């Protein structure tokens, strides 16, 4: 790829991430091309579908999310691993609003394998923390959706404030997830897609 083509591609990806963060995944491809200063034909030559653009724009974040789960699963202390996942995923959500939309996107095949692997990893991690008696027995993996919905409420504030508030919110939530606290109402089987609604 020529140097100018590489620069155009990098600029398109940067602009796409910015616009997805600002306006969600519904932003038109033409708006991305316009802000990146490239023609629509150039955009479609590099990214023939919006799904391919979203996938490429968030590849690093998807890999990071999976790495967080994988690392937590190797932690000899399941509670610490569980807490690390909640904290890091919420921080990623608070600092990059477009990522959450991409992760739970309505595109049928968009990283579905990654989502599935991440979900199974988180479920296994939660079970390990329960088995050691550190995570409350009535915690459901679906509660992760509640956490993301609550944390997503910080989207209207500047990123610096959102990340600081996210850390505090996680501290509150993790304390309530600890075994030995009062019984909760039954879990609600929310899907990750409901985070966007």
UniProtKB/TrEMBL annotation:
Query: Which segments does the entry list as coiled coil?
Result: none
Gene3D superfamilies in the record = Tetracycline Repressor, domain 2 (1.10.357.10)
The record's annotation in InterPro entries points to: Homeodomain-like_sf, HTH-type_TetR-like_transc_reg, HTH_TetR, Tet_transcr_reg_TetR-rel_C_sf
Could you tell me which PROSITE patterns the record lists for this protein?
HTH_TETR_2 (PS50977)
Q: Which residues form the HTH tetR-type domain?
A: 6-65
Q: Which residues bind DNA?
A: 28-47
| UniProt entry keywords in alphabetical sequence | DNA-binding, Transcription, Transcription regulation
Q: What GO molecular function annotation could you give as one example from this UniProt entry?
A: transcription cis-regulatory region binding
> Does the UniProt entry include the keyword Oxidoreductase?
no
Q: Which superkingdom is the protein from?
A: Bacteria
Q: Which PANTHER family match?
A: HTH-TYPE TRANSCRIPTIONAL REGULATOR BETI, HTH-TYPE TRANSCRIPTIONAL REGULATOR RUTR
Output this protein's name: TetR/AcrR family transcriptional regulator
Which source organism?
Lentzea alba
Tell me the classification of the organism that encodes this protein: Bacteria, Bacillati, Actinomycetota, Actinomycetes, Pseudonocardiales
